[in-house]
Amino acid sequence: xxxxxxxxxxxxxxxxxxxxxxxxxxxxxxxxxxxxxxxxxxxxxxxxxxxxxxxxxxxxxxxxxxxxxxxxxxxxxxxxxxxxxxxxxxxxxxxxxxxxxxxxxxxxxxxxxxxxxxxxxxxxxxxxxxxxxxxxxxxxxxxxxxxxxxxxxxxxxxxxxxxxxxxxxxxxxxxxxxxxxxxxxxxxxxxxxxxxxxxxxxxxxxxxxxxx
Length: 212
Description:
8 helices; alpha+beta; single chain
């Protein structure tokens, strides 16, 4: 039995689906049926040439999550030690640290991958299509999850140890490329999120010609 959907119109859903790290409920299991609902909706996302090369691996086994978490923690620590981007707030850094410390406790992880591997010298258009054919489905999953009182954090940090994680999960690394990882759980602190803060439109949009 699934939970009642969050009452949000489409604009509300689009503006109130943030990356959720510290507000993931680490104590409440997420039913497999609920994750399958979100994935079923995610499969309707657009993708390159409608090839549907995406593959999704859901991990809810504690020992397997712990194995992934060890690689994730090592990669996250190295990322933060190298210095996070200047635009990254202290709050965001704290969220990254929190997720790295608690990934093994997150109720479910959804690993997104795609069949095939790019050559090292793949042209930009090929790279964009290869990875861009998976991300719309990930965003659709996050929207579907939010409408079901779930939160998610999309991360690529573990890809620093892609081969090790592939071996842990039985993924044929020469045939399948991991794209991203979603940490999924119910949320704490009440059902609502404020609209995510973003830059003013006139700072990021120009018309007909690039403007600095």
